[in-house]
Specification:
Layout lengths: L5 E3 L3 E5 L2 E11 L2 H12 L7 E5 L6 H12 L14 E5 L5 E7 L7 H5 L12 E4 L3 H6 L4 E7 L5 E8 L1
Parallel strand pairs: 4-7, 4-8, 6-7
Antiparallel strand pairs: 1-3, 2-3, 3-9, 5-6, 8-9
């Protein structure tokens, strides 16, 4: 079954210093399944060096979207859970190769020194990574190639905005 989304393609471009942000897609999903499907579809556009920031409040749907990204990358979606306590999860495909990483910075201080202990960026090279709760420090170590903002709506749907960062 194919999900039906409201999709708006945008041409909004913002530039700050050497960074260019272009909002390329806005979507409203009506269910968890549709949010996950959005992630699955987006995964086909990601390469091994892509860094996807997932931005939203608690319960917004960041982990649900990450589950879709992992499934679309070839991992078993049911294995994806919020890595809040483990900080970093790695997801493998059927051949055992890492196809995606999922980093949750909720419990870490937003300091380069604290994040550096994780061995970033070298420790996460070679597969796309989804980062929940990105702060200022992570931008220095692992700048985004994509930013996804998820905002729950009063009717229970989620508004998702995908921005490409170059």
């Amino acid at each position: 079954m194919r999900c039906h989304w409201f999709v708006a393609l945008c041409a909004t471009t913002r530039e700050t210093s050497d960074v260019r942000r272009e909002t390329v897609r806005e979507v409203v999903t009506a269910s968890e399944a549709e949010t996950e499907a959005f992630g699955r579809d987006l995964a086909s556009e990601l390469g091994a060096s892509d860094v996807v920031y997932l931005i939203g409040d608690l319960g917004a749907g960041k982990t649900t979207l990450a589950r879709g990204l992992a499934a679309g990358s070839g991992a078993l979606a049911r294995e994806v859970a919020s890595p809040t306590f483990a900080i970093l999860h790695e997801y493998a495909g059927p051949d055992g190769a890492i196809v995606m990483r999922h980093l949750d910075l909720y419990r870490l201080a937003d300091r380069v020194a604290e994040l550096g202990v994780l061995g970033l960026p070298e420790a996460v090279a070679g597969a796309p990574i989804a980062v929940e709760w990105p702060g200022r420090a992570i931008r220095q170590l692992l700048p985004p190639t994509h930013e996804i903002t998820i905002a729950p709506q009063p009717d229970g749907s989620r508004r998702i905005e995908l921005t490409v960062v170059t």
